[in-house]
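User:
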Amino acid sequence: MRRFALYGLGLLLASVLALTYTTSSRAKSGGRVSHTCSVTDRAFIDGAKTNVDAVDLWGQQYLDGDAGPAEVAAEAARAAKIVGATRPTDPSLTQARNLLVAMFTAYRGAMEQRAKHRDAGDQIFHAYGLANFAHDVLLKAEPALAKHGCDVSPLL
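Assistant: Predicted structure:
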């Protein structure tokens, strides 16, 4: 029982941290974000797309019975590490990176729960919520980023 409480507390803290970061980043700029489209921004977009696609593919293989939950968890952990190592300069892409890393981490936790034959509903719900936050950030930034030469549509 204590382990479940710790997991729940960890998920709650991660959610609060992600939401706090998201809202405080917007508050600091007074609503105006100065967008960029650097080489590292483009590298983030490409790397994030590749890793989202990879985790999606592994998730589909899990649903089809061709991969186990531990394999999917390992892929999600790799994706979190790879995307987390990127350093976009654009504030919206940085925000999206943090949300994607949290999403991959939540998805990994869900697959680890499935590997133990436990309910993973809360972690999946959390992962999808983080994905939606990332989508909203990118959707809002898309026109300005496009003006600077960054196409985030592959991540939408």
